[in-house]
Amino acid sequence: MIHDMAPVQDAWVAANPQFKGLTPLQVYDAVIQALTDKGFAVILNNHTNKSLWCCGVNDGNERWNESQTDDVWQSDWLFMVSRYRNNGRVIGADLYNEVRRDILYDPNWNGNDTHDWWKASQALGNRILLEANPDILIVIEGINWTGIPVDGLPHHRPTLEPVASLSHTFLATNKLVYSAHFYAYTGPNHSGATGIGETSDLRYRDYSQADLFEVMNFQAGYVALDIDKHYTTPVWISEFGVEGRGDILASDATWFNNMVSYLTTYDLDFAIWPLIGYLGPNNTNGWALLNWDPTTGGRDGLYDGNDWRVNAWNTLLDFTGDPESPVTTPTRWQMLNLDQGDFIQSLVQMSREDWDPGARKGMCPDGLRMIGISAASTRALCTNSASYTWASGNPTITVSNEAYVTEGDWASGYTKYQCPSNSYVVGYAIRNSEVSTVLCAQASTTLGTDGSGTRWFDQGDNRPADDAGGDFHYGQSKGQCEREEYIAGIAFTTRIGDNGSPAAILCRK
Question: Does the model's pTM come out above 0.90?
Fold first, then answer.
């Protein structure tokens, strides 16, 4: 659509002759304007790369870079978001639809290759916020399918399961939305196929209501429902639906009613697939809420008397409540992931010089501070719990020695990189696994020096009992201060048998 300069065919816009002679993108512009003029909010969506129906094997739409390069994908997104930047009703960018396996390769989450969906979406999300529109929501769907759908071979629908161990952290901390799709005929290990590609795994419609709720919470809902975790963020069920007229399976109807109960029970946002469609022969394909009937040329909609979904739909709409009701601002917990290289999420620091050239660096988003770090060096946890304010105009201090360890040896026998008074850790750098430098932010107020003191984690986790922030590095030992504290220093050793990775932190308040 973006690159097609040929005018649309007259027959395609016969009902809207004002669009004759326009390019596809110009028609799209007009649709966006009409929707937003009526008060609708619009979320842009990269649904496919090619003008083909989703979701065949080897159709060129399996991944964001399946039939185009990463560079084209990113540049097209920057173009589209910038194009509607001045329209405040264009609120979101859904980066790619249903990322899934092609013939040879599975998508992955942090594999650091061309199939790495976490890496691609992390990079593009930041570019959109930095270069195109700092106010837009970044919507990221989970992985839709991996493996070969044959009994006896590995296959799975991960959805948002990987987010539990690795979530996204953007330059702006309140712009992330995760997304998931659910249909009756698919399942957590069922491709949705009939015949070729069909397995003996359960479809979602085969589950009891209690089991359905459990599996959907495990796959997606937990991201929104778990409080105070690094992954806690809104979840949008951006596709669900079932045929509303004609002959349908009783299990499909039960699933739809259970799905509505799920959305109302857990107060999750949703979008039905689809809002508008057309009826096929004998009133088939009645998935849409509002259909055009090509036989009669008339409308056949949800409230025209022949759609069994109407009561469930009304229940769902009645539950949505007041859209203008206030929303509580939660405490933010965000991960730093240095597995693949620098992970600097501070706009302020990005405008400043590299504090440790050649080292791998991580830094919290502006307004957050480090509160935990992994003994494996490449993961850390940031938060804005309690009030530790770094005025962005204040300097940062790079610490590479023990010059500021002036109040006692808090980690005897270990090298200690400690912030100066009234400063706290917001970033760090490593070379291989060894701590290279600590980056400290100068606070706007006087900081206390009490707190829990030294927290060792070289022999195992040493984290708060309330699990604030969640497990930010699965399988690795981690140290973390209490939520009202700040990290004042990091200790490590390069003695024989040790690699210089973090071993203790100094927690103060």
Answer: yes
